[in-house]
Amino acid sequence: MPALLQTNFSLHRLEFRFARVVTAVILLIYAAAVLPALHVSGAVASIIIIQNFISADITLVANYSMERDLRCAGPG
Hints:
Elements: H1 2-10, H2 16-34, H3 42-73
Helix pairs in contact: 1-2, 1-3, 2-3
């Protein structure tokens, strides 16, 4: 989750289309790390993945809003 926050909030100049791609890559990496982990039960793995998808959605909405605000403000 920190990677999602860092990518979509701190890198606020990251264009939304690139933020979507980076977020998808981060989610795939998280899933690839969590799913094969033998010490994590299926229910816990599902919760972790769902939590990351929700976090990704929230951070992408925020990224889109920040980019839209910058576009509406115009040059200057």
